[in-house]
Amino acid sequence: MSMRAVVAKKVTNAAITILIILVANFILFRMMPGNPAITFIRTGAGHSANPELLERQMEIFGLNDPVHIQLYKYLVNTFTGNWGYSFFQGDRLVTEIIAEKTVWTVLLVGTSTVITIWLGIAIGAASAWRRGKPFDLASLAFGFFFYAVPTFWLGYVLLILFQEDIGIIPLLPRSHSLPTPYPTDSWTILVEGFRHWILPALTLTLVQLAGISIIMRNSLTDILTEDYILTARAKGLSDRMILKKHAMPNARLPMVTVIALNLGYILGGAIQVEQVFSYDGLGLLTIEAILSQDYPLMQAIFLLLTISVVVANLISDFLYAWLDPRVRLE
Q1: Phi then psi for 111, rounded to 5 degrees?
Q2: What is the mean pLDDT of the chain?
Q3: Is residue 84 domain-resident?
Q4: Are 118 and 111 in contact (CB under 8 A)?
Q5: What is the CATH number of the domain that holds 273?
Q6: In whole angstroms, what is the distance from residue 323 CA to residue 123 CA?
Q7: Global pTM?
Q8: Number of domains in the chain
Q9: What is the pLDDT of residue 46?
Q10: In whole angstroms, how large is the CA radius of gyration of the chain?
Q11: How far is CA 320 from CA 118, 249, 266, in A?
C-alpha cells in the first residue's frame, strides 16, 4: 500500500470518528440532569422566576426545538464555527472564551510534554544501557512511584512543600496563571507567568515522565539483545555509535504510539492540575462549565479535547507508517 493510500485511509477513519464524537457529544449533554434555563433564571431572579421569562430563555437557548432539530443545528453550527454564546459568562462567544484559556493550557501542556519526552527518552536510554546497575534501579523506582501517584495528590504535595506563605519552603505562588491585578509590564508578565507555571508544569512532567522512561527502557532493552547489536560491538563500534545509529532508531517506533496516547492522558491530567492550582486554562474552565451547566461551553470544550486526541493519534499513525514501511503493507 502506498503512503498516499495510507493517508487516505487514516484520514477517512479519523473523519468518521470525529462525526461519531460530535453526535455523542450532543447526546451526552442532553442526558445530563438539570435545566440550564432554570439555573440561569434562578441566578438572576431568585427562585421565584417569572414563567414568561423562563419560556423566553428556553427559546433563546433552543431547548424548545425537537431533539433532531437541535442536533441538525448543532452539527451545522459546529462545522461553520458558530459555537454559540455562553449561558453564564455574560453572553460572550464560546470561541472567544476558549481562545483566551487555550493559550495558557497550550503553554502548560506543550512545554511539559516537550520536557517529558526529552527527559523520558534520555532516562530510559541510560537505564537500558546500564541495565541492572544502580542508575537503572533508581530510575525504575522513581518511575514506578510517580506512575502510581494520582496527579491531584502530587499537586497538593508540591503546594504543601513550595507554596508561598504556608509552604515548608515558600518559594512559588499557587493561584491563577498571573497575579491579580494583572501586571502591565512585559518583563513582569514574563517573570510572574513563569513562577505561576513552575508547579503545574512540574506536576504534569513528573507524572508523565515515569511512563515514557519505563517504556523507552523496556523497548531499548529488547533491542540491545538483538544479533545486529552484538555484531556492531564485534566490529569495534563505540557505545555511543551503537546506541545512536543502531539501537535508538528502532526503539523510537514504539515511542511514537506511546507519546500520542500519552497526549490524551496529559489533557485529562491538565484538568486536575489546573483545578488544584487554579490555573486559568481549559481544565479549570471545564470544571466551571460543568458546575454551571453551561451547555454550549461544555460541548465546545469536550469536542476540542476529543478531537485533539484523534488528531494526535492520526499524526502518530502517519509517523509510524513513514518510519516503518512494513506498516503500509497491513
Answers
A1: -70, -40
A2: 78
A3: no
A4: no
A5: 1.10.3720.10
A6: 23
A7: 0.77
A8: 1
A9: 47
A10: 24
A11: 19, 12, 21
